[in-house]
Write a structure and sequence with these properties.
Distance between the termini: 37 Å
Strand content: 15-25%
Largest sheet: 4 strands, mixed
CATH architecture: 3-Layer(aba) Sandwich
Length: 154
């Protein structure tokens, strides 16, 4: 278990690259306030928005979860403790005014980024427009319509 990456793993890096490309800046492995050993995978501190990218095996994904046959009782307790810890951290962060988004590692990174952008737009505290910068990917025309630069379309 010590060989598994806690951060900078493939699912997390895919989401982080897309967020960065959208002009969003974040903290990685940010400590949960009041907790010495708990961290947030991706944190938007100003907006108090936390993103966790949970592994299917370690957090008991309903689609992909499977228990090893050897020592099944121990693994059942271990994953149940992980789920309980996740719930406790969610509750603690919510009590401190944070919004928590938990996604599975198998989710499409583009879909995750869409969820994040939608949530951050609701807070009005992150992104190029909130920092007084101009978002060069979309520019309104004189008629009020928004034109998307062809090179930025997915």
């Amino acid at each position: 278990m010590s060989k598994l990456r806690r951060r900078n793993n493939k699912p997390e890096m895919a989401v982080r690259r897309l967020l960065y490309a959208r002009g969003l800046r974040y903290r990685v492995c940010f400590r949960v306030p009041g907790q010495r050993r708990r961290t947030i995978d991706i944190a938007f501190v100003g907006a108090r928005f936390a993103i966790y990218i949970d592994g299917c095996f370690w957090h008991g994904c309903p689609e992909h979860a499977h228990l090893p046959k050897a020592n099944a009782g121990w693994w059942t307790r271990k994953i149940a403790m992980n789920k309980a810890r996740d719930a406790a951290v969610n509750e603690q962060l919510a009590g401190l005014g944070w919004t928590v988004l938990r996604v599975w590692e198998h989710e499409n990174p583009h879909a995750v980024v869409s969820k994040v952008v939608a949530a951050l737009e609701g807070t009005g505290k992150e992104g190029p427009a909130s920092r007084g910068e101009r978002d060069t990917r979309k520019a309104p025309s004189a008629s009020g319509r928004v034109h998307v630069c062809p090179s930025m379309e997915a």
